[in-house]
Amino acid sequence: MEYMATFFTHFGAIKYKRFLASMDIIAETMPVPRKYSSNCGIGVKFSTTQDIRQLISEDIEKIFALQDDKDLLIYDNS
């Protein structure tokens, strides 16, 4: 499944991308559309089959599951 994580800070997004890389999960930092977040503006898009609950960190504001042209909010820490 493909996900988009938004963050409270730019540093949180960079740190999370490094965390995913340490777990051999390919991730990409990218600008976040305003419909997802009004905070730092940088998000991390990644794809994994792991249980997403294992990948949640305190830096994450929200996580969206991206599927079939629908973006489902699956985690909200705001």
Account of the protein in words:
The protein is of the alpha+beta class. Helix content is 17%, strand content 41%. It is built from one helix and five strands, in the order E-H-E-E-E-E. A five-stranded antiparallel sheet has the order 2-3-1-4-5, covered by helices on one side. It is globular.
What percent strand? 35-45%
Radius of gyration: 11 Å
**How many β-strand runs?**
5
How is the biggest beta sheet arranged?
A: 5 strands, antiparallel
**Number of helical segments?**
1
Distance between the termini: 23 Å
Comma- or semicolon-separated keywords:
1 helix, 78 residues, five-stranded antiparallel beta sheet
Q: Topology, pairings included?
A:
Blueprint: E1 2-7, H1 10-22, E2 27-31, E3 42-47, E4 60-67, E5 70-76
Antiparallel strand pairs: 1-3, 1-4, 2-3, 4-5
Summarize the structure.
By secondary structure, the chain is an alpha+beta fold. The chain has one helix and five strands.
